[in-house]
Design a protein that fits this description.
By secondary structure, the chain is of the alpha/beta class. It has a single domain, classed as Aldolase class I (TIM Barrel, Alpha-Beta Barrel). The protein contains 11 helices and 12 strands. Strands 1-4-5-6-7-10-11-12 form an 8-stranded parallel β-barrel, surrounded by 7 helices. Strand 2 and strand 3 form a beta hairpin. Helix 1 runs parallel beside helix 3 and helix 9 packs parallel to helix 11. The chain starts with a strand and ends with a helix.
């Protein structure tokens, strides 16, 4: 299982939200380029980037910061947050982003999603963020009418190869991840599943690895020093 250390960007800084609440934001690093370089030094080959302003407003507010991170860190980078048209997809792919994560637009603009998948194949992933058993959109500020299961099934049928699934109630809470959710998804769908939200111990990593998930995104636990990135990577190899 691959470990994706996370950098969530807001106004050019690396931050974390508590359960997606923009009013409960902690700034962890003023220079996220250095943060990405540190992840690489600890042995990471992967990076998960989120443009929080983009997710909320649908604009690429952190483009220059993302460009610097991608160019200097030289990691396999997946990026989500406010990517809602083909021009933005192509802009990010052109600077070296390896995989684009579509969230809000995967629900609100199916024709765009299908065009992107047809053109770029497995370089397009979908982020499914769950709150009260519904898929949340627009930076987790609104709930759609889609259930997790229905939406996963639809994405698999469209041809999506990778789904990043977040239980918003677990995100940033440091209370453990939703193992039952990922166990169910891994058994039900043939797509690659990447777990996100609440991963707060090496035991979480071990459990997710045993499910043979494609990957796990780790954020707050790294920033607070709960465990090291190197130990997470090693645990995920076992």
């Amino acid at each position: 299982m691959n470990i994706y250390p996370a950098i969530d960007l807001y106004e050019g800084a690396a931050v974390r939200l508590f359960q997606g609440n923009y009013n409960q934001m902690t700034v962890y690093a003023d220079n996220p380029v250095h943060t990405a370089a540190d992840f690489k030094e600890q042995g990471s080959s992967f990076l998960h980037l989120v443009d929080l302003e983009g997710a909320k407003k649908g604009i690429s507010s952190n483009f220059n910061t993302i460009k610097d991170i991608v160019e200097k860190a030289n990691l396999f980078t997946q990026l989500g947050g406010g990517i809602r048209d083909m021009a933005t997809v192509e802009k990010y792919l052109s600077i070296g982003v390896n995989r684009i994560i579509l969230g809000t637009s995967a629900i609100t603009d199916k024709s765009f999603l299908m065009d992107a998948v047809e053109k770029y194949g497995d370089r397009i992933a979908v982020g499914i963020d769950i709150k009260d058993e519904k898929v949340a959109i627009k930076g987790w500020t609104e709930l759609s009418s889609h259930s997790c299961d229905d939406f996963c099934k639809e994405m698999q049928n469209i041809g999506i190869k990778t789904i990043i699934c977040t239980d918003i109630s677990k995100d940033g809470a440091m209370e453990g991840t939703n193992l039952n959710l990922y166990r169910k998804l891994s058994k039900t769908y043939s797509v690659d599943i990447i777990a996100s939200g609440g991963i707060s111990s090496l035991e979480d990593i071990k459990a997710l690895t045993a499910m043979k998930l494609s990957g796990a995104i780790v954020g707050k636990a790294l920033y607070t020093g709960t465990f090291s990135l190197a130990s997470a990577i090693e645990t995920a190899k076992e």
